[in-house]
Design goal:
There is one protein chain. By secondary structure, the protein is mostly helical. The protein has a domain at 1-56. Helices cover 27% and strands 0% of the residues. It is built from 2 helices and no strands.
Length: 81
């Protein structure tokens, strides 16, 4: 049997929880899976079939930096170095 519950870790870092009566007393394995907020958002987007950087697609489309001939733009950028 697997029980999954989202909890908030308090400042004292102590977690208490009740288990259903169907689980017998004795030894059990308990796992705490921690994900920071950014990782959780990315995982949610991937689970929904969205890619992590999908929101950036097309963001430079109307940028003056990348207008014109791409070869000339790259040469200009290279020559600035």
């Amino acid at each position: 049997m697997t029980i999954q519950q989202t909890i908030e870790i308090p400042a004292d870092r102590r977690v208490y929880f009740d288990v259903p009566r169907e689980i017998p007393a004795g030894v059990a394995e308990v796992a705490i899976i921690f994900e920071n907020e950014a990782a959780a958002k990315t995982a949610k987007r991937v689970a929904e079939g969205r890619r992590p950087f999908e929101g950036l697609r097309g963001s430079l489309q109307n940028s003056g930096l990348f207008s014109g001939d791409p070869v000339k733009t790259i040469r200009k950028m290279r020559d600035e170095w």
